[in-house]
Amino acid sequence: MEPSTMSGGGIDLDKIMKEDFDVLLVESYTSIPYGDVERLVNMLKEQEITTGVVVHEGDRESMKYSSLDIFDFVAVFDDRYVEMLRGYGGNIHVIPYPCYPVNPGNRKFGEDGIRFFSFGRQPEREYADFIEALDKLSSKYDFIYRIVRSDGLLNFSRRWLIQERERIKDTEEVYRYLHSSDIHLLPKGRTDKVVVSSTLCQCIGSLVPTVAPNTRHFETLPEDNPVLLYRNVEDLVGKLSLLIEDENTREKLRENARRYVEENRMDVITDKFLKLFEMVKEKAVV
């Protein structure tokens, strides 16, 4: 694959065909070699091996399969994807995005000053709201904002801003950062595509209050929202102040987060997939 374009590449079909397995589950992204995947699926179909696909693409135009009917089943994260894929074929089933299990830390809120935290590779513009809001709050509260990124430092400089260039190696390390923080600021950009936030699902089990922009990534979350969403910088300033000053708001967010994770944690989602595999196989036998 060409890193600059995230395209090209291919699949060693012969190597995969030599493997012994019962189900092929394709995690489909826009960078996947669609032609090779379709050839592989058709080869497996001849051997009566079950194939399925999990759709991560956010629009129909990005997908290059001849039809989703080539797969025995299609898994999507919510009903928005069902609507997006209408007319593209496929035996579609909704299975939510999995969450890392509940794993709270021991930190007391603001025990050594308020600690905000962000990580990831989002473009600089997606951090701008947080910087502007914290500028407005910096005369009122004592805090630091730690940003950890692997793609280089942002072009911001503040006395309360700490930036680190580091590639976080795994979720356990993410949780060490979260457990030493009070509020997780989750940058996300606005888009017309159908999207979910994998970062939220990865981090919400820490039970550290999460604040994010009100984008399409979060539009299917339950009414008892596990994340505090803001509309604009003024709204963000108010909601950060509320989080800092109101313990009841923080506790409500933690309760909502715990409930959401328990309903969608990894083992629960794994069971849903295993049941789907069995159901598809049983129908194939009949």
Descriptive keywords:
10 strands, 9 helices, elongated, 4-stranded parallel sheet, single chain, disordered N terminus, 35% helix, 6-stranded parallel sheet
Describe the 3D structure.
The chain is α/β, with parallel strands linked by helices and 286 residues long. It folds into two domains: 13-97 and 266-285, no CATH class; 114-263, Rossmann fold (3-Layer(aba) Sandwich), CATH 3.40.50.2000. Helices cover 35% and strands 16% of the residues. It has nine helices and ten strands. The protein has helices at 13-17, 34-46, 79-84, 128-137, 171-179, 198-203, 233-245, 247-264, 266-285, and strands at residues 23-28, 50-55, 73-76, 92-94, 114-119, 143-149, 161-165, 183-185, 210-213, 228-230. The protein has a six-stranded parallel sheet, with helices on both faces. Strands 1-2-3-4 form a four-stranded parallel sheet, sandwiched between helices. Helix 4 crosses helix 7. Residues 1-6 have low confidence and may be disordered.
